[in-house]
Design a protein that fits this description.
The chain has 378 residues and is mainly alpha-helical. The protein contains eleven helices and eight strands. The strands form three sheets. It has a three-stranded antiparallel β-sheet with strand order 4-3-8, with no helix packed on it. The chain is globular and about 80 Å long.
Length: 378
């Protein structure tokens, strides 16, 4: 019992550690630059949620006032009059201009712009940078975590498959933990929503997407603080894969439903006025479904990080015996909820993907719904 309690406390402490590391940093910067503490907290939260070209674990201010970063640089890969490859350390966290083969580049608000030797950024009337942006194929910290998560999944499930082969279908070690989850995805998500005949061809994707999102969400709660699934480009790519699989594997009945949703239930001349409304709605639904997937995952993970870090920031604003413990307690509770949300969002994305695959795999005649094709959607 004591061991379980200690493990829970250690887990929550680890989750909160990443959020607390900015406390001293904010106080030092406020003293040095004279910025309002609220502004500093907002800027830090905004910086935390963005992708970056280096992997910073934490930072501190040395005794001489110099700001020190602990981490490691990542490769910058640009297409600008040819291939330009260099280390992100040349930017020194956006403080210096990188010179590569006579070209100069500046890191400004997380984006790389081509500049002169002084790093001049030109603006339009709306204060938007007008400098040329080279094509950026850099290995950012989000890309690193995607690669790490992919490698972890490959190692984990390869080991699980080998343990099955050695022990006559009985998992060992960590496989005992993951086997019930895999069976749940198969028996409670894939089979009921897709159908017994066709669920197997979608299982590799459903298992991959479930564990991929879950692991990335959990990494985002560690002291590494990687907000991968809070990046709308990542959630867009995941939703796009579901969209393509749904429509590329759709049956004849699925596509017939998009353009002839009422089937043979009415004469063709009676359906014309209804189809003026129904067909555009069905076609619009093809794009609304994946859009809801990407927005739901992005918004929930982004909001969780914002709320958690805002609550912790309140401790340094209140600085009182009542406000600070209250903020800590709320942050503690939100951290526990975020662990659940990390799993829940992976489940919802997988469940809805399976539901869309089920719609795409519908076969009215085989299932006995030839008289009323709408029954398959009920």
């Amino acid at each position: 019992m004591r061991k379980t309690f200690f493990t829970r406390i250690l887990l929550v402490g680890t989750l909160l550690l990443a959020q607390f590391t900015f406390a001293k940093e904010q106080e030092h910067e406020t003293e040095e630059h004279g910025k309002d503490l609220k502004t500093e907290i907002k800027e830090y939260i905004s910086h935390h949620l963005k992708d970056s070209h280096d992997f910073s674990l934490f930072s501190y201010t040395a005794e001489n006032g110099e700001h020190k970063y602990v981490g490691f640089p990542l490769p910058v890969i640009l297409i600008d009059d040819g291939l330009q490859v260099f280390s992100s350390s040349k930017f020194h966290h956006g403080e210096t201009v990188a010179e590569v083969d006579g070209n100069h580049y500046k890191l400004y608000h997380g984006k790389i712009y081509k500049t002169d030797a002084e790093g001049t950024i030109n603006y339009d009337e709306k204060h938007h940078p007008t400098n040329v942006k080279p094509l950026d194929f850099s290995i950012t910290k989000n890309v690193v975590m995607i690669i790490v998560t992919g490698a972890l999944m490959l190692w984990l499930f390869t080991s699980l498959a080998k343990s099955y082969a050695k022990n006559n279908g009985v998992p060992t070690g960590v496989g005992r933990f993951f086997e019930p989850i895999i069976l749940y995805v198969r028996d409670d998500i894939a089979r009921p929503n897709i159908g017994e005949k066709r669920y197997k061809k979608y299982m590799p994707y459903l298992l991959t997407i479930f564990f991929f999102i879950w692991f990335l969400n959990m990494f985002g709660l560690t002291p590494l603080g990687i907000n991968v699934t809070g990046n709308i480009a990542i959630t867009f790519a995941l939703a796009l894969m579901t969209f393509l699989l749904t429509n590329l594997t759709g049956t004849k009945d699925y596509w017939m439903h998009q353009f002839n949703p009422l089937g043979d239930s009415m004469p063709w001349y009676a359906k014309i006025p209804l189809y003026i409304i129904l067909v555009p709605i069905e076609i619009l639904g093809l794009f609304i479904k994946p859009f809801s997937l990407l927005i739901r995952l992005y918004a929930n993970m982004q909001a969780g990080h914002i709320v958690l870090m805002s609550l912790i920031g309140l401790m340094f604003i209140f600085k009182s015996w009542l406000g600070s413990p209250l903020s800590f307690g709320l942050a503690f509770a939100i951290s526990l909820i975020e662990v659940l949300v990390a799993l829940l969002q992976a489940y919802i994305f997988t469940m809805l993907s399976a539901l869309y695959f089920g719609f795409a795999s519908e076969d009215h005649h085989a299932e006995g719904h030839e008289d009323d094709p709408e029954l398959v959607h009920l």
